[in-house]
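subagent[fold] <- orchestrator: predict structure for attached chain, return tokens only, no commentary.
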Amino acid sequence: MKVLLHYRAGPGLAARLGTLPGIDLSVVPDTDDAAFAAALPGAEAIWHVLRPLSAADIAAAPRLRLIQKIGVGVNTIDLEAARARGIAVCNLPGTNARAVAELTLLLMLGALRRVAQFDAATRAGQGWSQPPELQDSLFELGGRTVGLVGYGAIPSLLAPVLAALGCRLLYTARTPKPEAEGSYRTLAGLLAESDVVSLHIPETPETRGLIDAGAIARMKRGAVLVNTARGGLVDQAALVAALRSGQIGAAGLDVFAQEPMAPDDPILALPNVVLTPHIAWLTTGTFERSFAIAAENVRRLAAGEALLHRVA
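subagent[fold] -> orchestrator:
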């Protein structure tokens, strides 16, 4: 079956995927629109990562039968266009959970300890001459109240680690979860009590802009915001204003309103943020787990069997 991986795969990954049985794989970087357009007419399955897959893309692929999201969120796929053609859309819940949980912890620690600021200063030869007032904005994670917005696979892995570090845990979800570590709160209650707020929900019409100026105003002054979910959950202009005013003390962000970010985005100039370019999911472990299931779905499609994790 002809499979199109729309991702700039490294040589090691591309070589491993090229040996998968029953798959005629084309790897097209998500930065090469011309090559992608040329490959679409022959594709029977697309392994989709981040670059949005539009209705026009889908229309240009007459043989397409499966869109396999390498990840969880399908907000970058035109689901209505896929449904109209009867094209299956599947995702991979849980395959990147460990990687995202670990980077979330890293961003929490990095924001609380101003790692990016100290790294830049040290490289510039100024690491040992930082202003003394900076001492008043360096915090330990242990003993802090951490609020988890959403309680799926990622918070389930993260919560026991936070508890072991001595954090007090709160969470919010559609309904209380008996298996969850920590105490259930409404979103408003969680924002008011938490020293660190970490986002773990999908971007939907209901959640888009959830953390807006009003939500930020309800947070503790000086609280930390961490987002490894989706950039659209946060009103980024309101966040920048809050980071400048001190209402938000620091932030750790892996996702943004616009990706890639514009080089003059104001958030890039702020010293109290730690930034990564939407790579929380990106580890060799995620690849191994994800492509094993993606390949199994291609086999199932060819055999006429039910697909794993079908969402549309």
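orchestrator: received. Logging for downstream: DSSP finds eleven helices and twelve strands in the chain. The chain has a mean pLDDT of 96.
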